[in-house]
Amino acid sequence: MEHINLPAAGWYAAPHANGEQRYWDGTAWHEPAEAEPTTPFMKKPVTRRTGAFVAGAALVLGLIVGGVSGGAGTQSEVAALKAQVSGLQSDVAEAQTAAEESVETLATATTASDAMTKERDSARARVAELEAAATAAQAELDARAATITDLQGKVAAKDSAPPVVEVAAPETQKSVYYKNCTAAREAGAAPVRRGDPGYASHLDRDGDGIGCE
Fold first, then answer.
1. 124-162: buried (b, 16+ CB within 10 Å) or exposed (e) per residue?
2. Is residue 18 a contact partner of residue 80, using CB atoms and an 8 Å limit?
3. What are the sequence ranges of the domains in the chain?
4. Within a 10 A sphere around the Cβ of 82, how many other Cβ atoms?
5. pLDDT tens digit sequence for 61-98
6. Which run of H or of E encompasses 163?
7. How many other C-beta atoms lie within 10 A of the C-beta of residue 25?
8. Fewest CB atoms within 10 Å of the CB: 11, 25, 49, 66?
9. How far apart are CA 130 and CA 178, in angstroms?
């Protein structure tokens, strides 16, 4: 028979007691009432990992002993270990499901974050575009306001200046000469009075101021 190194004596999670602490004396399990710890090591229960190792070693020992004696204790220990394995598998499955859900949630959150980032960048670009348009519009308004101010100044200057009266130049009387009264009558100017165009003394022989009577 192959030699097996069993754990040292101490308190471990016993597979036949659903993982409860039992005392292992190096060869067999003892109930709490049967155990009489006499050393510091016996007074301090060990971790579940060590207990699992002890359970595995005890299972191997039980299988060896069971192979010889066929006792019922080995079957109960095997059943307990199977129950522990089943529980661990269930825990692993739940942890795997939770991890997958966490990954999916993280992916969804990342996608939403990327979408929000794109929307934020688009909104910032739109704001910058509107600000540029507002700046250009303000510059145009300022230019128009300056033009209006200049025109108002010119209008005010004209309103305050004295009115300019345009005086028409007197028409220059054309030089008219009638050789005799016959010519004056033919021109329709007879009688010709003193001051009228064409008046001359040779047309007013009596000197009364009226020629070609």
1. eeeeeeeeeeeeeeeeeeeeeeeeeeeeeeeeeeeeeee
2. yes
3. 80-156
4. 11
5. 555 444 444 445 578 887 888 888 888 888 888 888 98
6. none
7. 13
8. 49
9. 88
